[in-house]
Structure formats: C-alpha cells, structure tokens
Design a protein that fits this description.
There is one protein chain. The chain is mostly beta strands. It has one domain: 6 Propeller (Neuraminidase), CATH 2.120.10. The chain contains three helices and 25 strands. Strands 4, 5, 6, 7 and 8 form a five-stranded antiparallel sheet that branches. Strands 1-25-24-23 form a four-stranded antiparallel sheet, with no helix packed on it. The chain has a four-stranded antiparallel sheet with strand order 9-10-11-12, with no helix packed on it. Strand 10 and strand 11 form a beta hairpin. It is globular, with a radius of gyration of 21 Å. It starts with 5 loop residues before the first helix and ends in a 36-residue tail after the last strand.
Length: about 450
Amino acid sequence: MRSIPFVVRHALALLATSLLLAAGAAHAQMLIGWAQMPAATFSDGPTSGQFTAPNAFGTNVPPFIGKQPVQGFSAVLQGPRKDVFQFLVDNGFGSQASSADALLRSYALHISWRTPKGGRGAIEPADLDSGKERSQFDARTRLQLNDVHRKLTIPIQADYANYYNNPSNAPVDASIRAGRLLTGADFDVESFRRDRRGNYWFGDEFGPYLVKTDANGTVLRSEISLPGVYAPQHKDVVAGKVTANLPSSGGFEGMAINKSETKLYTLLEGLVAGDPDKTRRINEFDLAKERYTGRSYVYPLDPNGTNIGDMVAVDDHRFIVLERNGSTATSPNPAPFKKVFLIDLKGVPDGGTARKTELVNLMNLADPFDLNADGQTVFTFPYTTIENVLVLDARTLLVVNDNNFPYGGGRELASDNTEFLKIRLPFFLTDDDDEDDHDHHGRNGHGRDHRGGGYDWDDD
C-alpha cells in the first residue's frame, strides 16, 4: 500500500484536530484501547507483606504466603513484540519500613486490547525475551534485580540474618540471601530505562540514586548520587554527614533517555529545599561518562498538580510527563487532577524553565465505544497514582496506573485494579527537524519495531 506523503498526512491530522477541538475538549483525545489486570495478581517468590498493614477495605489482606504481588507498576518499556511491555514493580508496599520482603522485579505482559472492533481487554504473562505468552508469571517472565557481585556501597537486606537487621523479625528469606536479591527496603525504584548496550538504569527515590544493571538485572557498579540532593534515606544522611534537603519518596519518579541515546534525564518528584514552590528539577546525565553533566532544567507544576508520575522522551529535546494530584473518585476533594504534558527543552538555557503544553486530560477522555463498559462515553482515570507512559507511535500513547497494591480507593473502596489505556492524539508528535521519521522507538524506553506513521483511525 502506497504511503501517504507527510504533507498530506500532516494536513489531514490538522483537519482532524480542528474538527475534534470544535466538538469540545472531551473529544480532542480518544480512548482506542483498554485492558485491565485484577489487583490480586501474583508471581512465585518469598512470602511478602509481613511488614505492611492491611488496607481499610478488607481486601487482599497481607501477608502473601509464598508469593509476590506483580503490581503496582511505576515505569514501562516496550517489549520484544507488539503489545508486549515490560513493567517495573516499585518498592513494594509504600515505604522502606514496610517493603523488606518485596523483591525488586520487572515483568513482561501481553496486552489483549479491547478496541472499537472488540477484544478481551485482558492481560497475559509473557516471556521477557521472546514476548510469547506464558501460562503464569514465573522466572521466564521477569527481571530480578540483584547485587551478586557486591558492587553497591549501601547495606541491603541480603546482608542480614533477619529483616531490617532486627533479631525480633523473621529471618531474611534464604533465596534473598543466596542470590543477594534487592528488595523494597534497599531501593525505591520508580523509573527505568534501557541503554544502547542493553543495560538498565533504575531511578531510585531513597538516595536518590541511579542504579545500573546488566540485561539480567545484576548490578554493575556502585549506586550514583545526584550531587547536592539528599533524601532522608541517603547513606550520607544516615551516617550524619549531611542534612536531608529532599522529602522522603521525593526522588526519581520520572526518567528518560533521549532519542540519540546519549543522555539520561532525571525528574524529581519532590521539591528540593530552597527551590521555588511548584517546581521540580530535571538533571542531565551523560551515559558514556556515567556522570551528571551539571546541566539542569526546571519543570513547572500546574497550579493543580502536586506530583509527577513518569517521563519519556519523544526525541532529543521533547519529553512527555505525567502529572497528578492525590485525589480519587472516592476522595474527590479537591477534584482529581490527572494530565499528560509535553515539555520542550530546545533552546532552554541551563537552569531555565521547560516549555510546557497540555496533551491529554485523563479525567476527560473521549470514549465513544465505551471500552471499559461503564455505560459512559467520557472516560475518567481517577487513580491516586498514574506512573506509566510510553510513546507507541507518533499519535498514540500508552498510559497505565500504579495501583499501590494492596491499597486503592481509585474507583471504589477496594484494592485497585491496574488499567491499561491506549490513547489516540489528534495530532502527530513529530519533530519539525525530523518530519519523516516517526520511529522514535529504540530500546531506550520508546516503542520498538513499529516503523511508520500514526495509526489509521480504525486501527486497533
């Protein structure tokens, strides 16, 4: 089939944008795919949840004997085939003090989308390497972080006989000690990216630290601190050498590798002491030199925003950022604020403020086919935390919530499920300097093996 010239395609996209905007803001972006994973989805592993409290709803009560929750998800990468994605599980149960038995893993999932043409709207485990479906979440479906070569300079749970080095606690699981597996008491990993060599970079909130591993999840070097920024759990704060200037859980919530795969950009969730209110720091990191460049930018929060959820690169200077507040459908005061923004650093000087444009209001998405079967043609996404965004192609985004298992209250007073959204934009996310290249999708966290322009309107 002959491809449509870019000029014609661009004109059609502009026409479609005009028609949609004329129909109202609710129709400017459209839900074209939806799926859901039940909250109670588990994998094999050591008993987890021994140090966390039950939620207020009485659902999915811990501990979870002989198993690990597959959720909640805090970052996403494209997998080895279409509709297969690799999701990062965060530190476990919400804090360092509750997550010593939660293993740091990522899982491969196949999404069977429900679209305007039909479909299941379900999730299946997938092989991490091949992307082929599996019958259950097992060792073939996951990446397991470990420090078997003892590269880290911080103590980890695997160093102890008992969790938290407290004799009154249960013994550290033998598999954690033998494999020096990393847990949610060691790092709070909220973001990850893959570099051109296939190594992973994880963004942590406890340092905040960058953690580099090989393709199998084995740590390759000591953790890397962000100069001059210290969370309460940073090793130098714990040692009494410095004072914390970043709130707990205020570290690297968002992280992106540029299209050229030369620079990593970290985005803090919390405010550094002394910075202007409603701002967050973006710092540039040189992947080849494995050090920060000293260059930074300011991300301006929306007046209604309180936290960022994720960041992914579109090209070398533009990034997509999730932003939110903590409100939900069951706790709607103030009103839930959940949006997707495009920021641009082109021409912004060192220390300058990123230019910012709203892309998607996740509380007001057109859903003319009622893909989530709630009886409504306007879709809302009122979860506490929404922490996964990926560019699928020049007009399509993947957005997924972090369900904070076993907690919830996003849609109802119960543990939250995880919902997967495929969102059609009314325009192309094409760089003006690179008009004919719609493949912004290398192994660094963009899509993969999806050459060509945006989907047709009836694509599923």
